[in-house]
């Protein structure tokens, strides 16, 4: 929006014309509008018309149309509309729009790259506008949203343009963990520019027109001889399913922007505040949902089920907002509310690889737990895993190094941590999935749950290897003996009673008590505060 002071007359945003009469709407006399203001208004109107014609032809919205979707109606206040412009020569301003608006009534800072102006490229004017916005957001503790649609660094400005990216990188790192930062990729994002969103808390892409890559298809072909399309190299689907770069894949721009608004609704404005709370009154629906939990998880430990059915029967209204839904599907992470208060949820997904942990799911969980811990969201962990995925592929992919990230995230988290073992928790996976020993505040287990170093079948094959071999040599029924030994192992070792007796499990609860147990635990630890055990600058997280 372009606004002129009342002493300078009126600007009609609908027509793009300025009233030069000096007569205000209420009949009072004001000073005539200067010609520069008139030219600026006309140039703004013409610029947006050009943007619509260019962007709509590509199936994309203009930067300003995207801002209308992001913010509550009539809440966006723009800063520096004509920075970098030459009004006298009719040259538009910079290729980025900056300002503040409201999302569900709370202030949010935004910068939106405008591809219709110099291809959305970034030069000194754009970089300085973005950094100024980020400084103001950090100073005032306001979330930052970036709408990316850019041709990258402005070649004509050379190193000066690259320098501005360096400044933005540094500001993003300074803001990290203090204010939420969300990036929406709504067009091209290539070269060094990809690290602007890569440093933020969440990246949202769209199925169409959204690309991210360090080196484009032409460079790849020249360097390696590989021929590949932009979509196959760095499209939204690739980054949402294979690389894990994108946390959400929107069906279109409206869906992507709506997801950003939804995520912001669960997060506080900054790390010094508590997440927003919402009015909620439990009733018949919650009681019925709790009863359904008794039949969701099969008795047979090898039979799969959808852990989303468990989550939706625990949280308010059954509403669960997944993060990284299409990536590393053997684990599920996302936001929900309990008694009107936002929480983060981590769960194994038995439908995929029996819920085992691998390199990707470990990083997925670690990143999400760190996000929740940074912004004061309690973490609820639902466990049903046979352990880590075995194989040379996982070892060579760095399961030791990458799996350690998950340990680091849980062990350093200082928000309330509540864990429920739904069915099985074996080996190292039991430890890292929010166990008491790694720092959880309250740990529960369902009555039929199994907790052990190894599953019964695997343990018997190792412990009783000689007994089974002897039975085979003597012509005895090996399968019958194995079954007997498995039953004994499950009775004496695998059941959760041992963990209960050791204090590693605080209580054995029936499935229908799960929501109540978690809610009461969160109420108990609502006053949990951060503390520093040792004086240090920071730890050396495995990366």
From TrEMBL:
InterPro entries: AccD/PCCB, AcCoA_carboxyl_beta, ClpP/crotonase-like_dom_sf, COA_CT_C, COA_CT_N
Molecular function as annotated in GO: propionyl-CoA carboxylase activity
Enzyme Commission number(s) from the entry: 6.4.1.3
Key word Ligase present: yes
UniProt-listed SUPFAM superfamilies: ClpP/crotonase (SSF52096)
Keywords of this entry: Ligase
Keyword Ribosomal protein belongs to the record: no
Disordered: annotated span: 1-26
Protein name as catalogued: Acetyl-/propionyl-CoA carboxylase subunit beta AccD
Residue ranges, compositional bias (Polar residues): 1-13
Domain CoA carboxyltransferase N-terminal: 27-279
